[in-house]
Amino acid sequence: MAGIRARGKLPLVVGGTMLYAKALREGLSALPSADREVRARIEARAREIGWPGLHAELARVDPATAQRLPPNDSQRIQRALEVFELTGVPMSALLAATDRPPLALATIALLPHDRAELHRRIEQRFDAMLAAGFFDEVRALMARGDLNPDLPALRAVGYRQAWEHLARATPFAQFHAAAIAATRQLAKRQITWLRSMKDAAVVDPFAPDAFARVKAIVI
Fold it and tell me: What is the pTM of this model?
């Protein structure tokens, strides 16, 4: 960004991964590295009582993190419990602590007001991904032989549902509905995060003057 500014240009950081945005704006707190033994114990516990049961356990030690996670979000529940077991401190408390002052940025939150239109566009975009060869991409990943659906990268929305559909030959309609539902849930979490950014200028991306409003803020 400094290099872009030095050339007299305006850097624009655009994306939907909220953790990356937080890292850029505020920095990240130091969290412990993954511990295989701790994770193995948590996974064994999950097999006994299920991820909703572990979500309830998380709510007792880190209610703030549990509140923002669905009961079946195995990856994030596991990480939050792992951090607590390794440090004795709730992950929410560790994430709130940072020694770096916030980076001065003009922040814009694109928050759609029309939920029905958002859902329509989500489905439209997913269908475009399918038409562009999404299944071929997932088949190529499956054929590599060194990947499995439990890896974090393959738990991503769309990939998880496509892998299950191709591996188990589930009905296409079932796959399509599950992938769309998961994408809507992701959008809901992103919207919740964007709303928490109190200093952000809010623009409805579906509004006719959306581009003009964004341009007026950044230029």
Answer: 0.72
